[in-house]
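Reviewer 2 asked us to include a model.

Predict the structure of this chain.
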Amino acid sequence: MTARLDALCFDALDPRRLARFWSGALGWQIDDDASGVTRLVPTEGTRFFIDFLPTVEDKRGKNRIHLDLTSSSPEEQKQTVERLIDLGARTIDIGQGPDSPHVVLADPEGNELCVVEPGNFVADGGFIGSITCDASGPSVGYFWSAALGWPLVWDQDEETAIRAPDGTGQFITWGPPLPPKYGKNRLHLDIAPPADGDQRAEVDRLVALGARRVDIGQRDVDWVVMADPDDNEFCVLTPR
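Predicted model (structure tokens):
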């Protein structure tokens, strides 16, 4: 039995402000009843939430996880970039070069995101085409394929991608290079066993796959903080 992806989480200096940006960017709704978490609820069939969690730590370095947003034409790509800038994003240079077909932006707290070119394979995933992760190599993609029970749909040139077993929804992709890590990652995944599952058994299974438990100062909480083979934090929630 595998866990399911429950949420993509952002650490934020101002969770409400960042949620408003992403709500406008994606057209998702802000849930004001999410147990103290600023949460975005999808409006177009995406299977995970986006949560914004308070932090006092400033962003350092390039994030290891970002979202790839898609476009169906050069005109739509340009319009999406302009719309996101109007909402508070800005263009940034992370070394992509002037001939890159995708546009790299930063949200109001500096988190990178890409508006990818028409024809990119992740466009089949919807407007959020992919949760895109930097990686040391394909082994971390293999770990997450086993963790979520999502089959590999790409495994070439040190890059991997997985997708839900029914072949629909967003991709999760991994590829080098892996940037330095400065403390806790700004973005992380929350996963959860099914309602009839067992959190402890799931943690044990993930450890056997190559994860480890970590302490980030979480104290007495009902989730378990772990790190994947590339030392990226993720949380195992209670069954749901």
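Helices lie at 15-26, 74-87, 139-148, 199-209. Residues 74-87 form the longest helix (14 residues). We have added this to the supplementary material.
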